[in-house]
Amino acid sequence: MKVLRGTGFFPFIIKRILTSLLLIFGMTFISFCITQLVPGDPVAANLGNSAYSDPEIVAAFEKEFGLDQPVPVQYLRYIQNLSDGNLGISLSSKRPVIDDLREYFPATLEIALIAVVIAMVLGLILGTISAITRDRLPDQIIRVLSLTGVSMPTFWTALVFFYVFFFLLGWSPGSGRLDPGAEPPPQVTGMFTIDAIINGDFATFRQAFSYLLLPAIVLAIYALGVLTRFTRASVLEILGNDYVRTARAKGLPELTVIRRHVLRPALLAIITVAGVAFASLMAGSVLIENVFSWPGLGQYAYRAAVGLDLPGIMGVSMVVATVYITMNLIVDILYRVIDPQLRKAEQ
Amino acid sequence: MKTSLKRVMGVVFAIALVSTVTVSGPVNAAAKTLTVETVFQLTSTDPARSFEGTGNMINRALYETLITYKGGDASTPVPGLASKWTVNANATEFTFMLNPKAKFSDGSKVTSADVVFSLNRLKNVKGNPSSLMNGITVSAKDEMTVVLKTETPQPQVLAIATSPSLGIVNSKVVKANGGSDAADAKDTDKALEFMKSASAGSGPYVLKSFNLTTEVVLERNKKYWGAAAGYDQIVVRNVPVNVQRLNAIKGSSSLAVDLSPDQADGLGNKVNVIRGQGRAIFFIYLSQNKTFSAATAFTSNAKCLEAVRYGINYKKIVRYAGEGAIQAAGLIPTMFSGSLGQKDAIKQDTSRAKEAFDACGIKDTPVKIGFWGDGGAVNGIFFASVAAMIDEDLRALGFKPKLEGAPLAVSLPLYRENKEEMGVWLWNPDWPDSTNYTESFSPGTKVGLRAGWVKGADPVIEELQARASTETNPKKRAALFRDWQREMNKRGPFVTLLQPAAILVSNKNVKGAAPHIIWTVNLHELKPTA
Fold first, then answer.
1. How far, in Å, CA of B72 to CA of B521, rounded?
2. Is B337 near chain A, with CB under 8 Å?
3. Is A308 part of the contact surface with chain B (CB cutoff 8 Å)?
C-alpha cells in the first residue's frame, strides 16, 4: 500500500494497472447489460427452422450455452469463468471464445501494426513538410490529401483500392491471407509474416506480406490523414516559439532545427494521437476485413453480432477495451519517458 | 536521430521492394486445385450438426449417404452407399442394402453398424439437423442391411435420406475421438472438434483443414471406392459476392456460387454461367391471430387476404429478381412433385383487390410488415426491396402499411413467434420433397402457427395435407400436392411471390457444375476440362 501512496514512476504504473483492471471489469458489466438489452433471440438466430420448432433441441441448445439460467446468474458465471481465463463457448463456432480470439486477434493485429507504422512514418514526414511549407503548393497538396484521407468512408476506399490494385492493375494478389490452400506457418504469434520469419520460411513471408499490404494501406489511410493534420498543427505551433527562432538565429541548418528543436517536442502530442489511432484501427477494421476476406477480429465481431453470439460479442469487447486501455497506459508511460518536465514534477 | 531516420527509410524501402516483387504471382499455382468461392454459411463439417448451405456442399463431398441425387436433380434417388433399397407398401419400412465395395477413407468397410451409429448420433446430439430423424428409427438387419422405420407412412424418408446431415461416418474412428450415439449424446458426444480437424467418411474427398471464416481445404480420398475425384485438392473460400464476381472475370477462381442474375451478366469469356431454379420461395403472410393487434383483427379477415393476394404486382417483383426468376405459382418449388405451373399463378387484379379492400374494413388502421432488413438478401434479392414494392402496391389499394425491417436476429424471432402483423419471408426446404411444404405450411404446423393459423382452421386443407403425407403412389401424391396448393392459394394466409434463379459461374476449365437445391453443387461431379 505504501507503493500506491508514492508519487514516483512505479507507483504511477501500479495505480494505472489497477485502474485498468477495474475499467475492464466495469466494461464487462456494461457490455453484458447491452447485449442483454438487444431485442433479439440467440436461439432463433442460431437454430434452423425445424430445430427451432423442436422443444428438445431448443432446450439442449439453451442448456449447452447457459441460456436457461436467469440473466444475473449468467453474468456471475461469466465473471467466475473469466477469473479462470475462460471467456465461454461461442454460439457460432461452438468452441472456446479464447481459442477463437487467439486465432482472429493476431490477424487484425498484423494489419493494424503495419497500418500504424505506415501512418506514423508518412504522417510525420508529410505533416512536417506541410508545416514548413505553410500556404505554399506542397502544403496545399498535403492538406487536400490528408483531408481526403479523413473524409473517405473506409468501406468505399477498400472497395476502390481492391478494384484498382487487384482487378485492374493486378498488383495485389487478392483477398485472404495466403494463396488458396497454402499452408500457414506453424503458429507462434499468429501473425503469418512474423511466424514465417521465425520459421525461416521466406517464401511464405513474401506471400503473407503481399496479401496484407493492401488492406494495411487502406486501414492506414484514415490514421494517416489524422496524423498528418495533427503533426502539421503541432509543428506549426512549435515553429513560432522563441527557442526555434534562437536556434535559427544561431545559424543552425534548417534540417537540424526541425529535427532537434521542433520534431522532438512535437512528438509528445503526436504519440498521444498515434496511440488512440492504433486502438481505433484495431476496432475499426470490420469493413476492411470484410472486403478483403481478412479473417480477423472484425469479421469475428460481425459474425458474432449477426448471430447474437453473446460470448463472442463479450470476448471481442474485452479485447478492444483491453487494447484501448493498454494503449492509453503506454502513451502515459511514454509521456513520462519523453517529457522531462513531467519527470521533474514527480521528483 | 540521423541514423535511426535512415534505418526507418531503409525498412520502408525494403518493404516496398519486397511487396512489388511478390504481388504479381499467380493466385492459384497448383495444377489440379479447384477453388470454390462462396459467402460462408458454415458452423462445422460434422454431418450430425451441420445444416447450412456451405456445410451441406462440403459434407456432400466428405460423407456419403445411403442414397443421393445426380446433377441438379432432386426427385429421383440414385444409389449412394446403398446399392439397392426397398419400401414397403404403406411407406413405413425402408430397407437399404449396402454396397459391399463401399469403404471409408481409412480403407475399412462401411457396415450397417456405421449407418446405425451415424443416424442415431444425428438424432441424439440434438443439433440443428436432428429433427430430420424425428419419428424415424434405424436398425441393422445384418452386417450389410439397414432398416429405417416410421410409425406412420412417410414416403419422404427417401428424400430425407439424401440429406448430407445423414452422411455416414466411420463409427470406430468417431467413437475413438469422443463420439457417441447414445440417448444422452447431446451431453456426451465430444467429437465436434475432431470432426473439424479431420473427416471420417467414405466420400471422394477428405478434410485437410477447416477454418470457419477463411477456407476449408479438401484433398482427394486416395482410397475412394467409386469414380475418382476430379481434383487433388478443393479449396472452398469465404469470399464476399463482389469479390467473387471480380475473381470470376479475372479467371482466378474456379467456381462462384453466390452471384445474382444481374451480377452474372457481363462476366466475359473466361466463364460459363449455369442457370437453374433457386430453392427458396419468397412469400408474404398475413397474421390470422385476431387478437394480437388492431391490424390483425383485419388481416385475419378473408377479404383482407384477397385484397393483398390480388393487389400485388407480381410481374414487377419477378422483373426485379432478374433473369431466371419466376413467379411462385404455389408454395412448392418447380423441381418438386406436384408443383403448379404458371397458369395457376395468381394474376394481379386491382379492381377485385380494391373491392376486397373496401369489404375488409381495415381502412386507415396501420399494418406493420416485418422482414429481414439489415441488407438481408438471398440469391441477390433484398427483402427490403421486395417489401418496398409490396408497400407501394398495398398503398395503391388504400392500406396503410408500415415497413419494419430489422436484423435477422431480431426479426426472425418475431416471425417465428407469431408476433408480426404481416411479414415478407422465404422458405428453403429442409429435405427435398413436397411434404416439407404440406407439413410446414398447413394449419397447426410450424409456419402455419407463425401466421397464427391454428389446427382446425381449414379442414379441407388439413385433410389434403394428411392424405398427401401418407400417399405412396407418385401420381396420386403429385395430384394431392397440386390440390393442396390450389386450396392454399384460395384461402391460406400465405401469398407466394417468387422463386429466384440459382446461378453457378464456373471457369471454362471446369465442367460438370449443376446447381442443386440442397448442396448447391456436387463437388464430386466437377472435373477439369483438359
1. 8
2. no
3. yes
Per-residue pLDDT of chain B (530 residues; tens, 9 = 90+): 444 445 544 444 444 444 444 443 333 444 589 999 998 888 899 999 998 899 999 999 999 999 999 999 988 999 999 999 999 988 999 999 999 999 999 999 999 999 999 999 999 999 889 999 999 999 999 999 999 999 988 999 999 999 999 999 999 999 999 999 999 999 999 999 999 999 999 999 999 999 888 899 999 999 999 999 999 999 999 988 888 999 999 998 999 999 988 899 989 999 999 998 888 999 999 999 999 999 999 999 999 999 999 999 999 999 999 989 999 999 999 999 999 999 999 999 999 999 999 999 999 999 999 999 877 788 788 999 999 999 999 999 999 999 999 888 888 888 988 899 999 999 998 888 999 999 999 999 999 999 999 999 999 999 999 999 888 888 999 999 999 999 999 999 999 999 999 999 999 999 999 999 999 999 999 999 97
Min distance B419 CA to chain A CA atoms (Å): 13
**Interaxial angle between packed helices A297-306 and A310-338, expressed in degrees from 0 to 180 and rounded to the nearest 10:** 140
Is B22 in CB contact (< 8 Å) with chain A?
yes
CATH number of the domain at B281-499, please?
3.10.105.10
Q: Which of A44, A61, A167 sits opposite B250 (nearest CB)?
A: A167
Contact A310, A144 (CB under 8 A): no
Q: Of the candidates B1, B239, B409, which has its C-beta nearest A259's C-beta? A: B1
A32 and A123 housed in the same domain: no
Q: For residue B446, which phi and psi values (nearest 5 degrees)?
A: -60, -45
Q: Any chain A CB within 8 A of the CB of B211?
A: yes
Cell triple for B29: 499455382
Domain that holds residue A78: 8-83
Confirm or reject contact between B15 and chain A (CB < 8 A): yes
Which of A36, A57, A63, A289 is best to mutate for the B interface (most B CBs within 10 A)?
A: A57
| Own/partner long-range contacts of B458-466 (Cβ < 8 Å, ≥24 apart) | B458/B487, B458/B491, B458/B492, B460/B487, B461/B487, B461/B488, B461/B491, B461/B492, B464/B438, B465/B438, B465/B439
CATH number for domain B33-276+503-528, candidates 3.40.50.2300, 3.40.50.300, 3.40.30.10, 3.40.190.10:
3.40.190.10
Tell me, yes or no, if B235 comes closer than 8 A to chain A by beta carbon.
yes
